[in-house]
Amino acid sequence: MTEKKTPVPDTQKEPMKITVSKNGPYLVSGGVPLKTEEICNDDEGYCRTWRETKSYPLQQHYALCRCGHSGNKPFCDGTHTKIHFDGTEAGDFEPASEHAKVIRGPALTLADNEHLCVHARFCMRAGGIWNLVRQSGNDEARDIAIEEAGNCPSGRLVVMDNKTGKAIEPDFEKSIVVIEYPARGEHGPLWVRGGIPVISADGEPYEIRNRVALCRCGYSGNKPFCDGSHIES
Ligand code: FES
Q1: Strand 26-29 relative to strand 17-20, pairing
Q2: Which of 100, 175, 179, 191 could bridge to 111 as Cys pair (CB 3.0-4.6 Å)?
């Protein structure tokens, strides 16, 4: 006779979270969906859209490579111990808004945390997000600025509506996206979407944000966050 499985009530489900392990992988729990997406250029060569190329089978727990040397990427295969990976964290625990440069336009305000840049380059089109925000009294400029900010994986760029004072954020399903950029041969960070808590190896929580980019090459000077170093690695 087959045993009937009791469905786990929602209240007992393990919450989604990512824990940074000391000099080791990201330990993901709570059944976070994992996929790979590529950055696609438009006809003029500007980064414009995302294309999903792979969706991994859902797992409650998994470990993602943080040292950049796994033979089974994006998953950890234990190589970090062989290469004596130094995963020392240097990321800020304070809210990103505290360090942001602020640019105020007629309809939008831009908060720019340059040190979180991952060089995804969605912000360059149509004169660049900084000019677009300054021209945000124009509806087209406003709409492109909102689109460019929402595509910024790390949340370096956040636009706020001057009328409401609130950030305009894309509505993401909680998920982790492995970023690839084949047009430039770049292997980008892990894009953590939808506000999943990230906990340091010391047990301290980082600010929960809708868009966060975690280093997976091992070379960031701002671990666990990506700082664009994967481009030179
Ligand atoms: S993945 Fe961007 S610095 Fe490591």
Answers
A1: antiparallel
A2: 100
- Asked if 30 and 17 count as a contact pair (C-beta separation under 8 A), the reply is yes
CA–centroid distance, residue 129 to ligand 1 (Å): 23
**Cα separation of 121 and 57, whole Å?**
30
Residue entry with tokens 């940074």? 20
Q: Dump pLDDT digits (tens) for 206-220.
A: 999 999 999 999 999
Tell me the whole-structure pTM to 2 decimals.
Answer: 0.93
CA atoms 121, 56, 27, 11: torsion sign: positive
Cα separation, 148 vs 98, in Å, equals: 22
Measuring from atom 2 of ligand 1, which residue has the nearest CA? Answer: 226
Q: Name residue 116's amino acid.
A: L
* Ligand 1 closest atom vs CA 217: 4
